[in-house]
Design brief:
The complex is a heterodimer of chains A (272) and B (168). Chain A is an alpha+beta fold and 272 residues long. Chain A has 2 domains: 118 residues, Beta Barrel (Thrombin, subunit H); 79 residues, Thrombin, subunit H. In chain B, helix 3 crosses helix 4, helix 4 packs antiparallel against helix 6 and helix 6 runs antiparallel to helix 7. The longest helix of chain B is centred in the C-terminal third of the chain and has 30 residues. With 168 residues, chain B is mainly alpha-helical. Helix content of chain B is 73%, strand content 0%. The two termini of chain B are 19 Å apart. Classes of the chains: A alpha+beta (272), B mainly alpha (168). Chains A and B meet through helix 2, helix 3 and strand 2 of A and helix 3, helix 4 and helix 6 of B.
């Protein structure tokens, strides 16, 4: 017994090093597996508060480019509204009489990141705004990511530029769907894998990729990007597509959080 | 004694803020960022309680991780750098280290540079291997390590020169 104590006292520095190093490794491994970064995330009072106050200053620097993006979106929506043949009956615009499928919440990205392998963003909305895990996040030009952790006022988002992120997407003109992944090479290009070989006739460079709506996170038809090139994988059964994103992930600020109102019902049904 | 502690507390806070708010947004060539927060580990007094030093380095790394949502990669790299520091002190400064009388402002520039370079290299290798976490991308790991290393060493040398002039 005394020898054990002596051993611990003699090697206390090394043992402390080993303890702390393995603790850090544990956090690292947790962060590399989807949805398991439990303790170390920036959605807390301290880091969120600091990022928020800094963002209130640095937000001014790209005000002009962000305004342009918002005006473009307004322009698109206005032209959709006034060119559509659907008559909007003003007596039905009251949201309490109509049940809508999706609830949108506007938010700001206060910490952006795109040059790591596993990029995580921070939003300035949290549980106080009824934001929960697994809500989708989009911008005016396409998908951004999925909410990972929430605190009272902040939420972290697993960006689409994250090697653990997997989002179901499909070709716009047919219903061939695959999984959207990222190989961490460039923040502009993502990979759509598992497109069946039979879809070859429908593939052409420049085609639009949209979300498939197969998961209850994103609605169907949210823009993703266009096909840059495609090739068969090693087994020659599936196509791998390089998709150029519509979003410039290095310059996003205003985003929308999507809540699927029916999600509890859908998950309930699937778990039965 | 109190002023020594307060200098290190202030240095800790300033370096964390500078790293998180400035140096992480440089993105030179799209992905190269310097990590000059390791100045805290580099300039920690040689005469120290080694356990306390390792613990502080861990807290420093974990604080950076908290801000950057990076799991524990900075904590692991910092702890290893802190644990391995005596080896690099001995190999760069040689006999002066034996008598424990190093003042970082007064040592020769050449040996200071080797010391900073070695410690930065080991820190960055661990950092990027854990960040990328895949053996098949070893070229990418080495490439990122090399570029960031050059950037960090340059910044560390510059910062130490600037701030040592101010004190005298």
């Amino acid at each position: 017994m005394q020898q054990i104590i002596n051993f611990i006292i003699r090697n206390k520095t090394f043992l402390l090093f080993l303890l702390l190093f393995s603790l850090a490794l544990l956090f690292t491994i947790q962060s590399h597996s989807y949805h398991r970064s439990k303790f170390i995330n920036s959605a807390n009072f301290l880091t969120g508060g600091i990022y928020n106050s800094i963002n209130s200053i640095s937000g001014y620097f790209n005000l002009k480019s962000q305004n342009t993006i918002l005006v473009e979106e307004n322009n698109r929506l206005k032209s959709l509204l006034h060119n559509s043949n659907i008559q909007v009956d003003s007596s039905f615009t009251d949201s309490t009489t109509f049940s809508s499928l999706y609830r949108f919440t506007p938010a700001n990205i206060i910490k952006n990141s795109y040059n790591l392998n596993n990029n995580i963003l921070l939003l300035n909305k949290g549980k106080n705004d009824k934001i929960e895990e697994d809500f989708g996040v989009i911008s005016s030009k396409g998908i951004i990511g999925i909410i990972n952790k929430t605190s009272l006022n902040y939420a972290t988002v697993i960006s689409v530029l994250n090697t653990t992120s997997q989002i179901s997407a499909k070709l716009k003109k047919t219903n061939h769907f695959g999984t959207l992944t990222w190989n961490s090479a460039s923040p502009e290009i993502m990979q759509l894998i598992d497109i069946p070989k039979i879809a070859e006739a429908n593939l052409s460079v420049g085609d639009t990729i949209v979300t498939s709506g197969r998961s209850s996170i994103f609605p169907k038809g949210i823009l993703v990007g266009i096909i840059q090139d495609f090739e068969l994988d090693d087994a020659e059964n599936y196509f791998t597509l390089n998709v150029k994103l519509f979003n410039d992930m290095t310059n996003v600020e205003h985003v929308y959080i999507i809540e699927n109102i029916d999600k509890p019902e859908i998950t309930n049904l699937l778990n039965e | 004694m109190n002023s020594v502690i307060s200098i290190h507390v202030v240095r800790f806070i300033v370096l964390v803020f500078a790293q998180v708010l400035i140096f992480n947004h440089i993105n030179f060539l799209g992905y190269v960022n310097p990590y000059p927060y390791i100045l805290f580990i580099l300039l920690f007094p040689v005469k120290n309680n080694r356990m306390l030093f390792i613990l502080f380095s861990f807290i420093l790394g974990l604080t950076i991780d908290l801000f950057l949502d990076s799991g524990g990669i900075h904590a692991a790299a910092s702890v290893l750098a802190a644990y391995a520091r005596p080896i690099f002190l001995k190999s760069s400064f040689g006999t002066i280290y034996e008598y424990q009388t190093i003042k970082f402002n007064t040592v020769e520039f050449g040996s200071k540079l080797t010391y900073i370079a070695f410690l930065t290299a080991i820190h960055h290798i661990v950092l990027f291997s854990l960040e990328i976490f895949s053996v098949s991308k070893i070229i990418l790991i080495l490439q990122k390590t090399l570029f960031s290393c050059i950037f960090t060493i340059l910044l560390c040398v510059l910062l130490t020169i600037i701030f040592s002039r101010n004190k005298t």
